[in-house]
Amino acid sequence: MASKRREKSAGCICNRREKMKLLVLRMMFVMLACGTLFICIMVSLSIKNKNSSAPGLELTPMKRSGFSLQPEPTKRNGKFVGSNGQHLFYKAKARDWFVEPEIIKRYCRATNLTQCSPVFRTEQQKQADRASRGRPVRVTIYRPFTPDPTEPNFSECNYNNCVYAGHEVTPESDAIFIYGIKLNEDAKVPAVRLPHQVFIFSGYEPVGSGYSTALSNSNSKWRTFFNATMTYRLNSDVFKPYGVLDFQPKAEKDLPDYRAIARRKTRTAIWIVSNCRTQSMRMQYVKEMQKYMTIDIFGKCGEKCEVVDERCVADFNSTYRFYLAFESSFNTDYITEKFFKLFIDDTHIVPVVRGSLDYKRELPEKSLINAADFKSPKDLALFLKSLEVDEVEYSKYLEVKDRYRAIDTDRWCGLCEYMHKLWTSPHVFTHGRQVDLQKELLHGHVLSPSVIG
């Protein structure tokens, strides 16, 4: 009897083993089938994404950036062309593009782009956008202290399905624009906040210029209050610098004699400045440069004048060879408005910059001189001294710089485009994201002078 029981037990064990083998084989087959199906789906999506783009979008290998166009364009048959042979065009509207976000990310990552080519939308496409949502985006400008007298105009925007809804936050408000300046704990939080509403933090000045506790206080009620940013940072949801450079080369017949302009100049460098004690220690840097070259200083930190800007010296454009556009603080991507003022029509003076922007990547070569390219203030000063007596080389800087014009970027058009993306893209949450202001604008983004030089 015991022998029979052992045989029966052994038979059961064998049956269980057979069943387990069959179960494992079935599971492996299912996993293989699922894997094959997944690969087929991904290939299909890849082909679809490769062939799909917004109307008019050309994803070319040309490197675009937030402030200008790189590389420096070449001349062919008397005209400037890019690496793909297309005539170059870049304005503030270069950010008015819209493609499925994942396609843009993959393409830009593969080609090392910071920005992709523009889409110029027809009026029919704009009307289709409005019809798809059913109503325009209602934009509210909220200021806890005083209402903003500015009434935004969206009619000329590439994406113009937005309307101004006043300065009171109501349940009907969709996008709420809030200035970061003077935003502290005394500022009243809007009484209304609904899930569909997007609260946008706006700040064009560098961190430390009056932002108060919104950034300095880790426990501030404003620190994680916002869903989007509109700042000078290149990675902001709405990019808003003081300007961008528009490639506008003159016709051959209109080109001035740059060597003659260089010969007429009599002074080396000028610096117009109002803030003498700064995080960047720019005054100490300039004082060191002055040991080796002449720098005329105007404003509160030098020779007094009624207005601390270019009007302080009436003939500075025709007299000086270099203008110091040094930043007061080293904030990632920030560039002063003084730089862009040097790119208005017929301003023939070479900017010398010192800041934390990646100038080589973001701005045209030989349109400026970057202090970061030199080991010390002495080296920079000696280079400027040598360049001022080299008429041929100095005139090349003037010629390159004269191909570009500074233009303003429209914050309201950028805001309306951003809201369009949120409302129409299935890949983006309707209410935006949660912004940590300290991580996005402060931590790791305010560099010390020793890092810059």
UniProtKB/TrEMBL annotation:
Chain segments annotated as transmembrane: 23-45
Pathway terms, separated by semicolons: Protein modification; protein glycosylation
Keyword Glycosyltransferase attributed: yes
InterPro entries for this protein: Glyco_tran_10_C (IPR055270), Glyco_tran_10_N (IPR031481), Glyco_trans_10 (IPR001503), GT10-like_C_sf (IPR038577)
Family annotation (SUPFAM superfamilies): UDP-Glycosyltransferase/glycogen phosphorylase (SSF53756)
Residue ranges that the Swiss-Prot or TrEMBL entry lists as coiled coil: none
Topology term for the membrane: Single-pass type II membrane protein
Top enzyme category: transferase
Residue intervals of the Fucosyltransferase C-terminal domain: 263-423
Keyword annotations: Glycoprotein, Glycosyltransferase, Golgi apparatus, Membrane, Signal-anchor, Transferase, Transmembrane, Transmembrane helix
Gene Ontology cellular component list: Golgi cisterna membrane; Golgi membrane
UniProt-annotated location(s): Golgi apparatus membrane; Golgi apparatus, Golgi stack membrane
Residue stretches making up the Fucosyltransferase N-terminal domain: 151-243
EC number: 2.4.1.-
Sample GO molecular function, one term: fucosyltransferase activity
Annotated family: Belongs to the glycosyltransferase 10 family.
UniProt protein name: Fucosyltransferase
Source organism: Elysia chlorotica
